[in-house]
Amino acid sequence: MRTILLKTRLLLFIFFASFFFSACQKDDVLSDGEKVANELKSKYVGYNFNVVAYSNRNTSATSDTQLNINGIFITVGNTTYNLDKLISYRYDNTNSIASLILYFE
């Protein structure tokens, strides 16, 4: 009888311990900005090209440089943009001038 009680307690302990540890695992859910940052880094970091950024405030920044991405922020010239606010981007190689054009909210 005592061994059955000990086995039952041990099984309950294992069940609750596994439930607790599985509930505490961190989800690897990325924000849109993090997804875009990873995509831009994988495709364009390390290459020199003209980067042009436009925002809805009718402002733009241009820089002839490599991408500078820190977390979900990208710096173009002296202006830093939040990649969570990125609407779209495109790569353009017209007239042999490689450009990355970024459109922000």
TrEMBL record:
Signal peptide: 1-23
Top-level division of the source organism's lineage: Bacteria
Keyword Signal attributed: yes
Keywords, sorted A to Z: Signal
Protein name (database record): Uncharacterized protein
